[in-house]
Every structure is written in structure tokens, then in C-alpha cells.
Amino acid sequence: MTRLNPLNRIRSALATLVTVLIAGSTLLSLAHAADSNTLTAIDVRPMAGQQLQLTLKLSGPAPQPTSFAIDDPARISIDLPGTSLALTSRRIDVRSGGLDTISAAETSDRSRLVLNLDKMMPYSTKVDGNNIVITLGQNTAQATLAAPAHSDGVTASTAGVRSIDGIDFRRSVDGAGRVVVRLTDPHTPINLRQIGDQVVVDFVGTDLPKRLMRRFDATDFGTAVTSFDATHSGGDARLIISAKGDYEQLAYQTNDTYVVEIQPKRKPEVAADTKRLYTGEKMTMNFQDIDTRALLQLLADTSGQNIVVSDSVRGSVTLRLQNVPWDQALDIVLRTKGLDKRQDGNVIIVAPADEIASREKAELAARKDLQELEPLRSEFMQVNYAKAADMATLIKSTGRSLLSPRGNVSVDIRTNTLLLQDTADRLEDIRRMVTTLDIPVRQVKIESRLVIVNNDFTRELGAVLGFNGVQ
Question: pLDDT, tens digit, for every residue of 66-125?
Fold first, then answer.
């Protein structure tokens, strides 16, 4: 029997340990690869009616995609959360059916596909097992997210009959006409398009009560909208809005309320309540029950801005916006969810309005406390033209004193000097006031000339003139 010396035993143990570590690392890598969902291929297939179908093939169950669209340049962005790329090429040239190219990119937590279009067109997405089917074309309802399923497996679209609960018309502060439609199902697919001087809105698979099936006259409101008709055609509810002049339309949805806003074109676009100029890139979004934080992240990606979202921002939102600047879309989302924002350099901070107000109040209180603890400085300020006593009266006048509660001022009449003691900021304000008011008073110079004439002046003048005349 051969016995190993201690050195050989150590070498054998190390070799075994290395083998075990390598095997464990390999198993972990295989497990990680098995858990990771990857996009393996994209199939493009033309369909009848100028439609195009894209099939995204994944290695595992397809996630629910999120998407947003931009009109100029026309492109649609599809985000796949928790997915990496395993494509042979990250650029696919299609050049068919209005689709030019497909660009793919990935980050640590998602992959993004950008569909570069010749012009904006309606689209829909559907999850089918390990595949995601995207349909582009004119006959597609503009619904970018599939309806969420109930616990019994029945989708919201089949859980009950969709219907329009009410139609109303309102006039905004800036004179825009708003057609407000209340839906029984917030997931109703809606297709909006403009034909001539009319805006046509189709509510797909939606019933319209007979009491609402009529023409609504809006001429008395003094907006660009003259009338709108509510009809039912082919199983869809249709709203035809007639307007006059050169106008632009804005459509958005919040939960079960869908709003179509018609207003005259004007440049730049101005918000009615804040008078703010919206100059961001225009985009189109259609989301159903999307997480508010995810929507803000999409806006940050679209705008290229740095947006920091507070941890207290929660909830979801159903939103449908068409041809809206991204900064206006951000304001609409904030107003809808009771949020507010603050600009700090090139960073936008988003938080609930109450949280921001409390934070600013705390900052003001801290600044006040700091001012009360700030050391006092003494300064002698010479007054050249005015009276120092009058200046002191202005400085400590009741109701608008320039002195802090700890400051004081006194006067040396003999040298016409102010003796001040206060914080550095208050002394700077007082110095600015004295410099402005301590100027010489304007004076008027009066000059006079006297001419003295006696009685002999005229006779002597006449005698000399007469004598010269005789000669």
C-alpha cells in the first residue's frame, strides 16, 4: 500500500476543489442561461390590405410589451422587459409596407425594438405564448397593449359588453372644444383619424345607447367645433366631430374617460393654465394600466432628460395621447396622478405634490434656522449727500425693515455715518439701498445780466448820428 506524503495530499485536495468549483460555475452559467429570456428571431410577413405582421420569437414565455410612438420622425418603440437579444443582426432592413428598418438594442433589464416608418400608421401588439405579434396597417385598431386577463382567464374585452355611458361637451379656458366620452370598459380599443375638416373616432366593439345616438350642436360654445354626431356602424360606436378653420386635435384617456380636444392651430403651443410653451418632440402613446414609474421612464427615454422619480410614486394609469409634445404629456401625467415636478439644473425631480410642498417647507425652515444662527457683522457706512438719520429711518421702517430681527442701526450725526450690525446678506441689501438713494440733489443755475441806461444816452447817440449826417 502506497502512502501519499502530505504535499501530495494537499495537491490532490486542491485539484479536487478546483474541479468542483469549475463544475459549479458551469452549472450556474447553464441555469442562468436557462432562466434568461432572449429574443431569437424576428419574422416579417406582408398581409392583405397594406398590412404588415412582425412576429417576435423568444426563448421563453413572452413578456407583456410596452410601447410608444413618435410622429416626427415616424417611429414606434417596443420595450420587452426582462429580455436580452440573441439576434444575428441588430439591424433588419425591411423597406416594405411602410416599414423601413428595425433597430434593436438592450440594457441590463430590457430590450428595445425601434420600428422606423415612412409615416405613422396604426398598430397593435398581441402576446401568443413565446411569440409577440405586431400588426402594422390602416385597418388596425390603435391598441398597443393586450387587455389584461382576469383570474378566470377571461380577458377584459370579453368579460362584458363594452358600451358608451355618456357623451359631454365642454369649453376649456383657452377656447378649445372638448368632447368627453365616458366608457364602461377603459380597455376599449379606439381608432382616431382626421378626414378633411372632420375627426372620426371609432370605439371598436362598443355599443351605443339610443339616447346618445344623435347630433350634438356645439355652435353656442364659441369653439372650433360646430357639431358632432354619435352613430353606430358595424358593431362599433362612431363619433364624427365637425370643426371649422385650421385646427389641431389632441386625444387622451384617463381611466374610463376619453377626451378629444379641438383647438385652433397656434405656434408655439401654450398650456391654458400655466401659459407654458411646449416645445418637446411630438409623440403618440397608448397605454392601458401601465405602471406610472414605467411611463415616466419611457418619457425620460424619449425626451433624453434626466428624470428622478420619488419612491412614493405608485399606481398605474390608462393613457392615450396622439401627436402631443413630450413635455405636455409629462404635465398631463403629473396632473392626473396628483404629482408635481421641480427642475434642478438638467434633472427633473418628480414626486407627489404634498411631498414636494413639505420638502420645500422644510428647506425654508432650515434656511430660517441657519439665518438665526449666522454670525453678525458690524459695518460703518458713510452717507455723502443725504442725511444719515433719514437713511436709518428708511432702513428700520415698520413693515418693510431691511434689518433682521437681530440687526440694529445707529447714526453718528457729526460724521453723517451709519453704524450697522447684521448678517452679511442684510448688510448687502442695505449697502445696495444706500448706494441707490445717496446721490446729489439736482440744482438749477440762474444767471442774470443788468444793463444801465441814463437820460443822456439817446441824445448823445442822436447828436453823433446827426453830425455825421451833415458832413
Answer: 777 776 677 788 888 888 888 888 888 888 888 888 988 887 778 888 888 888 777 788
- 51-58 and 37-47: which strand pairing? antiparallel
User: Scanning the structure block, which residue is given the C-alpha cell 417596443?
Assistant: 78
Q: Is the dihedral of CA 54, 60, 65, 69 positive or negative?
A: negative
Mean pLDDT of the chain: 78
The phi-psi region of residue 137 (left if phi > 0; otherwise alpha if psi is between -120 and 50; otherwise beta) is left
This prediction's pTM: 0.39
Distance CA 47, CA 53 (A): 7
Strand partners, 59: none
| Number of other CB atoms surrounding residue 159 within 10 Å | 14
- Rounded distance, CA 84 to CA 107, Å? 8
Q: Cα–Cα distance between 257 and 184 in angstroms, integer?
A: 9
Q: What is the 3-state secondary structure (H, E, C) of 158-216?
A: HHCCEEEEEEEEEECCCCCEEEEEEECCCCCCEEEEEECCEEEEEECCEECCHHHCCEE
Which range among 40-49, 234-243, 315-324, 354-363 shows the weakest confidence by mean pLDDT?
A: 315-324
Alpha carbon distance 382, 418 (integer Å): 6
Handedness of CA 68, 71, 72, 74 (dihedral sign): positive
Using an 8 Å Cβ cutoff, are 151 and 159 in contact? no
Q: Residue with C-alpha cell 382626421?
A: 194
- Cβ atoms of 332 and 321 within 8 Å: the answer is yes
How does pLDDT run across 282-338, given as a tens digit for each residue? 877 777 778 888 888 888 887 788 888 888 888 888 777 777 888 888 888 888 888
| 249: Cα within 13 Å, side-chain hemisphere | 23
Cis geometry, peptide bond prior to residue 61 (ω within 30 degrees of 0) = no
Which band of pLDDT confidence, cut at 50, 70 and 90, is reported for residue 425?
confident
For residue 373, give the 3-state DSSP assignment: helix
